[in-house]
Design a protein that fits this description.
Helices cover 55% and strands 10% of the residues. It has 636 residues and is α/β, with parallel strands linked by helices. Helix 3 (101-110) packs antiparallel against helix 4.
């Protein structure tokens, strides 16, 4: 015999005491109903019992049992229905059954006689489908079994919620208003099924639920009642058949042919006077027996932890099932992928129009040895021409990183908060571990994190006519894909922090990128940033992306080696008359020769570092790619 007990429970909000010194016990094999007027604290009590409400709570919640310790599992159903809207009713139950597979495995391995047939049956898809079909039939969901949840009625969704909890066969099942929104027939059918499951001979369950004013026939299905008054006190705990007799002992006579539950709620709401509530509450306090002789007990917090505990093997199995489920949901969520795909196509079209006559990737950005033509270009400022300058290509690289960040992060910021409520419900009820969920979620997101960056990178690389080199092309794509994974993960993190506020998560997601943009190195050179801030620039994925792509595009010996500059090479390029010119100027400015020597030395030192003007402008080296890739991988 297993009992679910609570003693002297009380909790309060900032303004008032919600429940006051509530004590009681619920036996296995019995269906218990919590009754009371609105605002009495029924849902609050259920949240306290389920471990969902801890602030301001005092008292004790525990489970008692006789003999050897059984495996006690727990499940809680809240008022809000949360589902994977793109799965059908049947698929939702089948996946739940497959996730329950881990608890069955534990039971088999705890048994000394492990039957191979039992193990094979649990891994068989048809076994889970048969169980789902049986539950669908019991809850009269056959009509909508092939319908996606998003298209189901409110009543069908309620019955699906009950099915998802029953498929786990938990030892303790707490339900908060599972019949709200159901018609009288559906309510009766659901209560009949709960009664049947609670009274099972093989594995009886402890089922307690909050319900509002059941009719007389519905009330008869409950074995026990727990009635809470408007003051947050218990005024009755006992069997359903003894309710009227108990009330009559306090001169509270239920009229003939009157619904007992309606009468009990009238008493609990204070319609018959507060004195009646005080008398009934005092009687319950005096006669509550908390006898723990010859019984073993375990705190409810340990029961919840045990329910949520998963071995390594469990996590592998649940990760596999969750990955399949996430893939199926993603394939059906065509709207999101359609919008992302069209956004990428629009940006490629815009790039094509902007760079129709300006192929920014053609210029190699290499340092040129001083020549007559080069001097002429300096005289007419032709070196600033966008067709010969590398700056437009730097802007393209920088813009590409910004676009990839927002196209990867924003969909996550908007959609993930809607999924977190599903995760919280399923994780707290022991369906799977947190690590299994996030691993499966990230695996399922791999295709979109590869396909969309791949389309954009191939299109933009060709449009801007970047250098056709396999290593540089693959490097460009790889960096963009890593950036997509990184920013999507950041989107998950921000959404988890602001799970109840999509607007806040979207705003924070945009604002957090502003300081990271400043640390990219294009708007403000890294060397210009104060020394104490420079290590923080490695947090900026904009800097890591920009620097990595710049090195891939302009580094790794793209530029041919240049001969060192000497006076003799200058004479060869400009002719022998350059010497008389220098002598003539020397008579006017004796420092010119020294300045020319310094200029030659500076040019030689510059080409010793790198032959690429693009890399020298930001003081990048080929070896810096290792640090960038390490930081990007670490942040992922």
């Amino acid at each position: 015999m297993i009992r679910f007990r609570f003693s002297l429970l009380q909790t309060k909000s900032k303004s008032r005491q919600i429940i006051q010194n509530l004590s009681g016990n619920i036996r296995s094999g019995q269906l218990t109903a919590f009754l009371g007027p609105n605002g009495a604290g029924k849902s609050t009590l259920l949240k306290c019992l389920a471990g969902k409400r801890k602030s301001g709570l005092s008292g004790r919640i525990f489970v008692t049992y006789n003999g050897c310790k059984p495996r006690i599992t727990f499940s809680y159903y809240s008022q809000n229905d949360v589902f994977n809207e793109l799965l059908t009713v049947e698929e939702s139950i089948v996946y739940a059954s497959q996730l329950k597979f881990t608890s069955k495995i534990k039971a088999l391995f705890n048994d000394n006689k492990i039957k191979q047939n039992s193990l094979l049956s649990l891994t068989n898809q048809s076994t889970h489908r048969l169980k789902a079909e049986k539950l669908i039939e019991d809850l009269h969901l056959k009509k909508c079994s092939k319908t996606v949840v998003n298209h189901c009625s409110g009543g069908q969704r309620r019955r699906l919620s009950i099915a998802l909890e029953l498929i786990f066969s938990p030892t303790i099942l707490l339900l908060d208003e599972p019949t709200s929104g159901l018609d009288s027939l559906s309510t009766l059918q659901s209560i009949e099924l709960l009664k049947k499951w609670s009274n099972r001979k093989s594995k009886p369950m402890i089922i307690a639920m909050v319900i509002h004013q059941p009719n007389a026939k519905l009330l008869s299905y409950f074995d026990n009642l727990y009635i809470i008054s408007s003051t947050g006190q218990c005024i009755y705990e006992g069997t359903t058949v003894k309710l009227i007799d108990h009330m009559s002992n306090f001169n509270l006579q239920c009229p003939k042919f009157y619904n007992p539950s309606d009468f009990a709620i009238e008493v609990a709401s204070g319609d018959l006077g507060l004195d009646a509530i005080h008398m009934l509450a005092e009687f319950q306090r005096q006669h509550f027996k908390d006898n723990l002789n010859n019984t073993n007990c375990i705190e409810m917090t340990k029961v919840i932890k045990e329910t949520q505990r998963h071995t390594f093997g469990d996590q592998l199995w649940t990760t596999w099932i969750l990955t399949k489920r996430c893939f199926k949901i993603n394939l059906r969520d065509r709207k999101q992928y359609f919008l992302q795909f069209n956004c990428v196509l629009f940006m490629l079209l815009l790039l094509y129009i902007l760079h129709l006559d300006n192929k920014v990737g053609i210029n190699d950005g290499c340092i040129q040895k001083p020549s007559v033509d080069y001097i002429k270009s300096l005289q007419v400022f032709d070196f600033l021409n966008s067709t010969t300058s590398t700056f437009p290509n730097w802007a393209f690289i920088f813009y590409s990183s910004i676009f990839m960040v927002f196209i990867s992060m924003l969909p996550t910021l908007l959609s993930f908060p809607l999924e977190v409520s599903i995760f919280c419900k399923e994780h707290s009820n022991g369906w799977y571990s947190m690590s299994s969920y996030f691993l499966a979620k990230n695996i399922a997101e791999i295709p979109q994190n590869i396909i969309f960056p791949l389309i954009y990178c191939i299109g933009s690389y060709i449009i801007t006519e970047q250098i056709l080199d396999p290593i540089r092309f693959i490097g460009f794509i790889t960096i963009m894909i890593l950036l997509s994974f990184l920013t999507q993960g950041l989107g998950f993190f921000i959404s988890a922090l602001f799970v109840n506020n999509i607007i806040a998560s979207t705003v924070i997601g945009a604002v957090v990128n502003i300081p990271l943009l400043l640390f990219a190195g294009l708007l403000i050179k890294i060397q210009s940033i104060p020394h104490f801030l420079r290590p923080f620039t490695y947090i900026s994925y904009f800097r890591l992306t920009f620097e990595s792509i710049m090195i891939f595009i302009y580094g790794f010996d793209r530029c041919q080696p240049i001969e060192r500059l000497t006076i003799q090479s200058i004479k060869q390029d400009f002719g022998d008359h350059i010497i008389p010119i220098v002598k003539c100027v020397y008579d006017y400015d004796s420092d010119l020769v020294d300045n020319m020597t310094l200029a030659i030395d500076y040019f030689n030192e510059m080409i010793d570092k790198s032959n690429s003007f693009a890399l020298l402008a930001f003081e990048y080296k080929d070896s810096d790619i290792n640090m960038c890739l390490f930081c990007i991988s670490l942040e992922n």
